[in-house]
Predict the structure.
Amino acid sequence: MDLRSSLQLLGGLSVAQFMRRHWQRRPLLVRQAWPGVRAPVTRQQLFALAADDGVESRLVSRTGGAWAVRPGPLPRRALPPLGRGAWTLLVQGVDLHVEAAHQLLRAFRFVPDARLDDLMISFASDGGGVGAHVDAYDVFLLQLDGQRRWRVGRAKNARFVEGAPLKLLRRFEPTHEWLLEPGDMLYLPPQWGHDGVAVGPCMTASIGFRAPSTDEVARALLHGVAESIDDGDASPRYADPRGAGTTSPGRVPPALQDFARAAWRRAARSPRSLERALGEWLSEPKAHVWFEPAGVAAAAGAGTLVLDRRTRMLYDAHHIYINGESFVAAGRDAQCLRRLADARQLGGAEVRRLSRAARDTVQQWLSSGWIHER
Ligand code: SIN
Ligand code: CO
């Protein structure tokens, strides 16, 4: 992809211009970003997904001023009749379950996969929406079907309605209002208040990008680094300093605290262990994801390898990450496997150039159903 060529998806801006001017800064409304867009699921398919307990969904409805939220799974009978207004069904991770939804995300791969959260699709009856709120996410709101009126305004120091089942903005001062038609798209940075109300029944796709907080990353890294420590006998053991006994036996010895500080530094000393923990965490599949093992698959190398749509594959200077696991790769193996991560497929000729060890690893991915051979 040429980052400097003008894209209809971004209203004629190039990726470079969009990233500079709008990404994480200000909204962008694009009329006919995706002319003739086809919803990757029908309404019936979306309802069927919501009924599945392996899919994350919720129903939001409003009666007068009162909001109600019901988490999925939602059998069809749990959904209000289509003719009743002011309700919306939201289905997360549609890209994990429906190939056409996964394919739709390809248009947004100018943002690193490590930032991608998922594709959510909502169906709303007339007047339906989730109220004025902010998200911690960058989001592209692509109108798939019908019309939705968006009101948008920066929400500084957002405060929320107490006791509501949704995080609704207590004060919302929209500065823009747009009626979106099928194919129109609205980009919103995090912390912009927004309220989308269906005008007649409508379907909207949200392509969301997560921005982890320092707390989340720290928790993930600490966990990852802890997992990578093996209980080797070689690690130095604490020794009491020379001296007398204690008259305050309850107190933690300061020397033991110093030892702990040194152990902490030692655990996080290797920058590779930190990178590895990060890559493993970022490539971890979502909670609802499982793969269908292929069992004893055909030997790798016969055809093109294609990543399963649920597979998250990333890399850094030293590692390849796939579905929460890391592999050290260098030279030609690294080149080929990085291409697999970027293009999500790898031609048979390239697969044959992999080392024996890399091919064995690929074979395991095939057997686990993480990749497929075409
Ligand atoms: C929706 O599709 O109804 C909600 C999307 C959002 O506001 O984030
Ligand atoms: Co939102």
